């Protein structure tokens, strides 16, 4: 807005005998101010607000102000969001009679203006005097969850009341139609968004956001435990992918002393076990004998009291016979070290933090089964060529805090990840790193300094023949391999034994099976990396894989985005693009309209930015194989934009100069400038937003 207009507005107010009444008269006689954005009315209102601050004698009081407040209240329900706060401030609505304000909001509510009533209540801070269930129910039916969260955001007591109400609606005997019936004619009513499953997810989200004790919502927690029990039985008896001890740990911690869950456990056991098996587990989970069928109670009497069930079931005999079919650690058991003291850990770090070291890194945490809170790392595994270190993070963090050295562990982890001379191998490292940050808050934002990281997840989409179908050839009941286990099977010959993956990693002491699983998960990364670097061509990878993975050091810090699941950065932080000759003569200039590209799925931000500039862009979806880019490029004559390992494969499938490797550590704007410069694309003003976004 020009200075001249602002000055004219202020002069106009100075000439008015009653600026507040004058503004209302203008607003009442015009509809221009009701539009979205910065209308003329918006500028007049905001200028008056500033003018009043400079002329404190202007605001009215007493009866005259009450009349003005009554008039402005009637306008607020039609008012754009950006004018609410200025008008409330100008007319001092926070000082108005509270009962009068509540009555006005109630009138809006009875007219069916539920959203407007809630927004005005938030602005005027009326929530403590309102019925939270009454105000929020129609908003939930209209799928206005964000507004509900804002409504209770500043009031812990209202948060608890809302959560208790939602939990009551999730009670199995509760009829949700009793809630929805009064609102059948509601505009924008979305009944499909109002059921127990959706409400349950909302409750868990609110519990986490507002840091409320989950015990406040017993129905939702109980239902989640019931689903967890069903899932555990599926993993154990259908997939057969959990050992008995691992499964038993989770069953006990899930059921506890809850009578409802104990009853459900017995019903599930009767479906999958004989009477003796049901009796063994009923005793282990301390199920009262009166809850058991007669035949099971009889078997329970026959069993001797013992602290640990040592009997091995037929299923476990089958499991033992299958161990030889899985990947086996090539190092002796005494070379696996479980570290719980800082004296041991410092000796470990001396070995790990050696220049030129290659380290397999993995982490384990207790599965949440959908409960509240982010997973906290319970075990950090560091594998070297001859030994594996398993760090008990909760114990080490507790000791460091007791000694007043909370930064000790984050310091060592940062040293490891920021050293470009040490190659860190992982699989799906972005998920591991986010859990590590949740465990050590001091590591927040330190990911940007990480160098020398190789995420082998990217190899999944590069290794020839790597697909779920390959493992269907397995005999027996074993499930198809996937993820890291499938990569291990294809590269090393046998899959990982993943039956301990869902263990309770916080329980101490760890079982021997857990220790071996944790060590294998980290050590196999070293063997995969070594095999791929020695013979990349036999796995369908570029012949220069070794050169691109073990490049020269770079001083530039790696950005967090380079650790995504679509690419494998080099161990030194170098861009994995292999040698690329710059053309002796730059290409002839072209317009964005003449430039057609296909962006790999790790460059979707770049693709959207180029499209804004008028470039013809095709984007790969997250689930697409990288090789689809080559197929599109050949069919439609497009240039491939990719990064990391996929560049090695894709550049050989298209003509020279038709595949370009982008630096993933840059932001989309810098990436776009890099692409435009390389292909000599000249952008004009008319090109910007010339294509549908």
TrEMBL record:
<feature type="compositionally biased region" description="Basic residues">
    <location>
        <begin position="553"/>
        <end position="563"/>
    </location>
</feature>
<dbReference type="GO" id="GO:0008408">
    <property type="term" value="F:3'-5' exonuclease activity"/>
</dbReference>
<dbReference type="InterPro" id="IPR012337">
    <property type="entry name" value="RNaseH-like_sf"/>
</dbReference>
<feature type="domain" description="3'-5' exonuclease">
    <location>
        <begin position="336"/>
        <end position="537"/>
    </location>
</feature>
<keyword id="KW-0540">Nuclease</keyword>
<dbReference type="InterPro" id="IPR002782">
    <property type="entry name" value="Mut7-C_RNAse_dom"/>
</dbReference>
<dbReference type="InterPro" id="IPR036397">
    <property type="entry name" value="RNaseH_sf"/>
</dbReference>
<keyword id="KW-0378">Hydrolase</keyword>
<keyword id="KW-0269">Exonuclease</keyword>
<dbReference type="Pfam" id="PF01927">
    <property type="entry name" value="Mut7-C"/>
</dbReference>
<dbReference type="GO" id="GO:0003676">
    <property type="term" value="F:nucleic acid binding"/>
</dbReference>
<dbReference type="GO" id="GO:0006139">
    <property type="term" value="P:nucleobase-containing compound metabolic process"/>
</dbReference>
<dbReference type="Pfam" id="PF01612">
    <property type="entry name" value="DNA_pol_A_exo1"/>
</dbReference>
<feature type="region of interest" description="Disordered">
    <location>
        <begin position="549"/>
        <end position="591"/>
    </location>
</feature>
<dbReference type="InterPro" id="IPR002562">
    <property type="entry name" value="3'-5'_exonuclease_dom"/>
</dbReference>
<protein>
    <submittedName>
        <fullName>MUT7 Exonuclease</fullName>
    </submittedName>
</protein>
<dbReference type="InterPro" id="IPR052408">
    <property type="entry name" value="Exonuclease_MUT-7-like"/>
</dbReference>
<dbReference type="InterPro" id="IPR037432">
    <property type="entry name" value="Mut-7_DEDDy_dom"/>
</dbReference>
């Amino acid at each position: 807005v020009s200075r001249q207009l602002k000055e004219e507005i202020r002069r106009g107010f100075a000439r008015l005998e009653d600026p507040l009444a004058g503004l209302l008269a203008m607003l009442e006689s015009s509809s221009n101010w009701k539009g979205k954005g910065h209308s003329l009315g918006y500028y007049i209102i905001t200028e008056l607000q500033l003018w009043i601050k400079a002329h404190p004698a202007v605001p009215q009081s007493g009866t005259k102000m009450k009349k003005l407040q009554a008039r402005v209240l009637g306008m607020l329900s039609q008012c754009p969001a950006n004018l609410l706060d200025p008008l409330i401030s100008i007319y001092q609505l926070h000082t108005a009679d509270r009962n009068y304000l509540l009555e006005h909001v109630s009138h809006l509510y009875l007219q069916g203006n539920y959203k407007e009533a809630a927004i005005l209540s938030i602005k005027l801070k009326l929530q403590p005097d309102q019925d939270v269930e009454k105000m929020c129910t129609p908003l939930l039916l209209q799928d206005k969850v964000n507004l509900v969260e804002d409504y209770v955001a500043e009031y812990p007591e209202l948060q608890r009341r809302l959560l208790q109400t939602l939990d009551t609606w999730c009670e199995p005997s509760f009829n949700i139609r009793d809630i929805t019936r009064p609102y059948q004619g509601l505009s924008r009513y979305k009944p499909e968004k109002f059921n127990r499953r959706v409400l349950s997810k909302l409750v868990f989200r609110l519990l986490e956001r507002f840091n409320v004790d989950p015990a406040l919502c017993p129905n939702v927690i109980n239902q989640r435990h019931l689903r967890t029990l069903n899932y555990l039985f599926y993993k154990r008896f259908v997939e057969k992918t959990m050992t008995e001890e691992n499964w038993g740990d989770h069953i006990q911690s899930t059921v506890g002393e809850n009578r409802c869950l104990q009853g459900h456990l017995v019903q599930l056991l009767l479906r999958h076990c004989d009477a003796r098996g049901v009796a063994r587990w009923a005793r282990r989970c301390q199920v009262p004998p009166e809850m058991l069928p007669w035949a099971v109670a009889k078997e329970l009497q026959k069993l001797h009291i013992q602290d640990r069930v040592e009997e091995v079931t037929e299923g476990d005999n089958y499991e033992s016979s299958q161990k030889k079919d899985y990947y086996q650690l090539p190092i002796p058991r005494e070379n696996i070290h479980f570290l719980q003291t800082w004296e041991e850990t410092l000796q470990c770090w001396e070995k790990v933090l050696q220049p030129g070291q290659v380290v397999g890194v993995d982490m384990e945490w207790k599965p949440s089964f959908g409960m509240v809170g982010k997973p906290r790392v319970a075990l950090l595994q560091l594998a070297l060529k001859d030994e594996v270190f398993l760090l008990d993070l909760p114990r080490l963090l507790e000791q460091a805090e007791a000694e007043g050295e909370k930064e000790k562990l984050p310091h060592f982890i940062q040293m490891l990840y920021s050293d470009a001379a040490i190659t860190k191998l992982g699989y799906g490292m972005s998920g591991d790193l986010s859990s590590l940050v949740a465990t050590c808050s001091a590591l927040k934002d330190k990911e940007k300094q990480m160098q020398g990281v190789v995420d082998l997840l990217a190899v999944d989409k590069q290794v020839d023949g790597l697909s779920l179908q390959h493992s269907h050839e397995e005999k027996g009941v074993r499930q198809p391999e996937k993820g890291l286990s499938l990569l291990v099977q294809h590269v090393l010959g046998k899959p990982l034994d993943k039956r301990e993956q869902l263990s309770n990693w916080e329980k101490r002491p760890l079982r021997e099976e857990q220790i071996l699983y944790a060590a294998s998960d980290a050590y196999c990364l070293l063997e995969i990396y070594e095999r791929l670097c020695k013979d990349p061509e036999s796995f369908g990878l570029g012949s220069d894989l070794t050169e691109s993975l073990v490049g020269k050091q770079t001083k530039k810090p790696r950005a967090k985005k380079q650790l995504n699941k679509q690419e494998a950065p080099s161990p030194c932080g170098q861009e994995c693009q292999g040698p690329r000759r710059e053309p002796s003569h730059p290409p002839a200039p072209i317009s964005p309209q003449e430039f057609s590209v296909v962006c790999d799925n790790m460059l979707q931000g770049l693709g959207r930015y180029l499209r804004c500039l008028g470039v013809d862009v095709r984007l790969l979806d997250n689930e697409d194989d990288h090789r689809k880019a080559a197929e599109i490029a050949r069919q439609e004559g497009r240039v491939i934009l990719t990064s990391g390992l996929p560049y090695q494969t894709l550049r050989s499938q298209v003509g020279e100069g038709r595949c370009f490797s982008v630096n993933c550590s840059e932001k989309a704007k810098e990436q776009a400038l890099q692409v435009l410069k390389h292909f000599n694309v000249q952008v004009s003003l008319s090109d910007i937003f010339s294509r549908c976004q």
